[in-house]
Specification:
alpha/beta; 3-stranded mixed β-sheet; 15 strands; globular
Length: about 300
């Protein structure tokens, strides 16, 4: 992989609620000696959603139309829709090579690249009702040079993003969020079994993130950021040294990830301001975006 730069939106550091998160991400990346920068010309801090998706680790990207229904259909939130071209063109240090256009309404949070596969939820069909299902999938597979693995949309999540459901670990392995594996909710258990069945049919191994019930937002652990040499892991306790149930859950999650990434440094970052709040609903993966400059363009 070429030199990687991790970007966050300038909005993350401007907002009083999330400034601390921005500072913690910056400090962690400095600790891991990972280059990072700030995106301008953005209207909210969920930059994963509106920035182009990476097709390959040599710096190829694909653009798309960012007009999510959960923002577009709500007058209160329309002003938060960032124009993708404005965000790309408003940052001089970006020299994006975008030879591909997905030609659909899409969110980058619904894109989990897994080598020669891409995981998405089937929300792409409701967002693009004018396109035939089979043709849409064929066009995507051609544009992205990947097999599309479709997961059912958990409609409790209006965004319909795949990056809160699964993460790619490499070598044909995926990490599945265990938040649906709740014995108290039979409907969630059925959904969980359905996800496992689909993933088992496409990947060598499906590892499950444990279900912790000390806090309903424990799903956020899956929305981590993997960078060279380390993992930035969301945590829900403001005081990591506390002995309460939330801190204990954070500690258990960190131990899990330290075993999963045994040769990497796991850095916990307080992410509750992202998970909860008026503009909440994500964590560290959602507010970051990877950039690789393509050095030799045809």
């Amino acid at each position: 992989m070429k030199e990687l730069t991790i970007y966050t939106s300038e909005r993350l550091g401007i907002s009083a609620r999330t400034k601390r998160v921005a500072e913690a991400i910056s400090a962690a990346l400095n600790d891991l000696q990972v280059k990072h920068g700030v995106l301008k010309n953005t209207k909210d801090y969920w930059c994963r959603d509106y920035m182009p998706v990476m097709i390959s680790d040599d710096g190829k990207y694909a653009q798309f139309t960012y007009e999510p229904d959960y923002l577009k259909e709500n007058e209160k939130w329309r002003d938060y829709i960032t124009n993708q071209q404005d965000a790309c063109n408003g940052n001089d240090e970006l020299n994006l090579f975008m030879p591909f256009d997905m030609d659909i309404v899409f969110d980058g949070g619904n894109y989990v690249r897994c080598g020669d596969k891409v995981i998405m939820t089937d929300k792409i069909f409701s967002e693009n009702p004018d396109k035939k299902v089979t043709q849409l999938l064929q066009d995507l597979e051609k544009t992205l040079s990947a097999e599309i693995v479709l997961l059912p949309w958990d409609m409790k999540d209006s965004c319909g993003h795949a990056d809160g459901m699964v993460a790619y670990l490499g070598d044909g392995r995926v990490l599945l969020n265990g938040c649906w594996n709740n014995p108290k909710r039979k409907q969630s258990l059925a959904f969980h079994r359905r996800l496992r069945k689909i993933l088992n049919g496409h990947f060598n191994e499906v590892i499950e993130l444990p279900f912790w019930d000390a806090d309903e937002d424990s799903w956020c652990y899956l929305n981590y950021l993997k960078v060279p040499g380390g993992v930035l892991l969301p945590c829900l306790s403001e005081n990591c040294d506390s002995t309460d149930d939330i801190a204990a859950m954070d500690s258990a999650a960190k131990v899990f990830f330290e075993k999963l990434f045994s040769n990497e440094k796991v850095i916990s970052i307080y992410a509750k301001p992202l998970v909860k709040g008026i503009n909440g609903g994500g964590a560290l993966h959602c507010v970051t975006w990877e950039y690789i400059k393509k050095t030799a363009q045809p």
